Amino acid sequence: MLVARAQALAVLRIRSAALAVALLPAAAAAVLAAGIAMGRIPDGGAWSAARWAFTGAAVLALALAATVAAVVVRARPALSPTVPIAEEKAPDLYRLVRDLAERLEVPAPSALALTPDCDSWLEDRTHPAHGTPHGAANGPPRARRPRRRSTAAPVLVIGSPFLWWMRVAELRALLAPVVAGTGPSAHPDIAAARRFVRGLDAAVAVAAGRPALAFVGGVARLLLHSCRGHAAEMERGVAAAASERAQSVDYGLRIVAQEQVGLAYAGWDRLLNRVALPAWRMGRWPSRLDAGVVSALTELSRRDRLAEGFASRLGERPACDLLEEPGAIDEAASLLAARLFHGGPPDTGPDWLPVAWSQYPEEVVDRKWRLEAARLHRVLDVVDALPALTPVLAAPAGMAAAPTVARVLERLAGPAAGGLAEELGARLGAEVAREAAQEALTAQQRAFGAAATAEPWVDGLAPLFPLQPPRSGRELLADHVTAMVCCAAVDTAGAAPGLDWLDGPALLVGGARRPDLARTVLSLIEDGDDAPLRAWLGEVGVRPEKPVRLV
What residue ranges are annotated as transmembrane (predicted)? Predict the structure, then answer.
């Protein structure tokens, strides 16, 4: 705590030094004016000119300093996107946090909120721009004036996956060091230093792209650079003090809880990338992501011996039982996750609908496969029309080739098919890139269009955290050939689309997954060997010559 306070005082000294620099011309002008008035400095000549010069410089410096100070004070600090939780919706959770604060002998957080991420922190939301007077939120525009800065404790932000995966005792142990941070946050010097740094950061954001505020932005960046080291050391000192204070509460259980944090992060990342992202691209958002992470982690514990024993905890009371309506909270967090990680709209609409896990195979998996099969068929049509293509492989003039698996096998089989595979992969990559660019443009238009009325954290950026780096042409071609085969299996062999909690879309044959399909597809694409895939098709009962149904 002493280290944190010392660093906070260093930040405040930088603020005082900046103020002293701004007041220096005024001080010099005051000294000259007083000296002339008292007769100690001769009036007229160079001294009089110096007095007027310093007076003009003082007026200019004070005007610039007042402008910088006004922007720093009034600029709205960044606000993390969260789902607020009112006390009437989670009285047990509020009671747990307050009991924890009482045991730690620190102020209780002023409110609770959830974030769709595997992290927890305290956030100061006392800036006037972060709220409106009580009861004025729905009033006319002139009634929604910024409130005065309050002295309320910070808001406790909790990662929503923790509530569904962790048990009540584990959540309490995990939150102890975070809640303990309200003690240092209440210290006047630390609070003032934090406000100053946040104000500078917000001022830099306000001045960006505005030539009229170029001077304000330059001063704010200079001060922020000067404060950066001290602010970082202050936060480390606060974290160390909070951790030391929290050692008296559930220290042994906290070690187990930290293991659950790593596991929850792995499951959450896998669920977003493999399961949620395909749905978001289809215009659907899974409405129970937090419940899905429990299923994903349970499946992981079944497959991975390193996670053995974790699923046995599921018999204990989950932390989501502390919520009055966990389903509604999960839905709100899932919609926020879609907006954060994909740039989806803030509300449900005709092109942005929730999807339950029971509907996911039909509404997402099957549609995804058929869209990819249609894209592969279109690209094949383009490649078949190229002059360099062997005429034997092309469809007769005036006749469109049927979308069949047999057509794909004919094009990609044989030692000379490597060049065609490269061409298909490149063209698929270009088409997918065009669609992704259109999605990004649409998401940005949603963000800018809603910026005037939506939450203050939007700032015209969407998505804030894009998922999944670009894939290679070979990977895209493998995905599209797999989708074509899956569509044929569903249409001709009685297979069904399914959901694997860790791997996303899956093909079910006789109610069981067939993960061996990927190996045969890679053999076709990389080696031009279609024998393994033909053997797999025969085993499952797929008729490759039958056209598949496209979207």
Answer: 49-73, 151-168
**Tokens 């969407």 sit on residue:** 462
CA distances from 21 to 11, 213, 219, 543 (A): 16, 20, 12, 82
CA 338 centroid distance within chain? 9
State pTM to two decimals. 0.83
Cis status, amide bond into 463, omega within 30 of 0: yes
Cβ-proximal residues to 361 (8 Å cutoff; 6+ apart), any chain: 496, 497, 498, 499, 505
Query: 250-254: long-range contacts at Cβ-Cβ below 8 A with a sequence spacing of 24 or more?
Result: 250/169, 250/172, 250/173, 250/176, 251/173, 253/169, 253/170, 253/173, 254/173, 254/174, 254/176, 254/177
Q: Are 83 and 333 in contact (CB under 8 A)?
A: yes
Buried b (16+ CB within 10 A) or exposed e, 227-262: beebbebbbebbbebbeebbeebbeebbebbeebbe
Q: Parallel, antiparallel, or unpaired: how do β-strands 496-500 and 512-513 relate?
A: unpaired
Write down the residue that tokens 């304000």 correspond to.
216
How far apart (Å, rounded) are the C-alpha atoms in residues 259 and 214? 47
Q: What is the spatial distance between Cα 2 and Cα 238, in angstroms, rounded to a whole number?
A: 9
pLDDT over 90, % of the chain:
43
Write out the H or E segment, with its range, that includes residue 175: helix 168-180
C-alpha triplet 442, 362, 435: angle, nearest 5°: 25
Cα separation, 215 vs 30, in Å, equals 26
Cβ neighbours for 522, distance < 8 A, ≥ 6 positions apart:
478
3-state secondary structure of 159: strand
Instruction: Choose among 413, 426, 430: nearest CA to 525.
Output: 413
Query: Which residue in this structure is represented by tokens 């689309």?
Result: 497
Distance CA 504, CA 394 (A): 35
Our CA angle for 339, 436, 410, nearest 5°, is 135
Closest CA to 249 of 102, 61, 122, 57: 102
- pLDDT of 427-445, one tens digit each? 998 888 888 777 767 666 6
Cα 78 from Cα 173, distance rounded (Å) = 29
Q: What are phi and psi of 487, to 5 degrees?
A: -60, -45
Cβ within 8 Å of residue 424, ≥6 positions away: 376, 379, 380, 383, 411, 412, 473, 477
Query: How do residues 283-323 score in pLDDT, each as one tens digit?
Result: 899 999 999 999 988 888 777 765 555 656 767 788 999 99
User: CA-to-CA distance for 532 and 133, rounded, in angstroms?
Assistant: 69
CA-to-CA distance for 162 and 10, rounded, in angstroms? 37
Q: What amino acid is encoded at 452 in this protein?
A: A
Q: Can you tell me whether residue 512 is helix, strand or coil?
A: strand
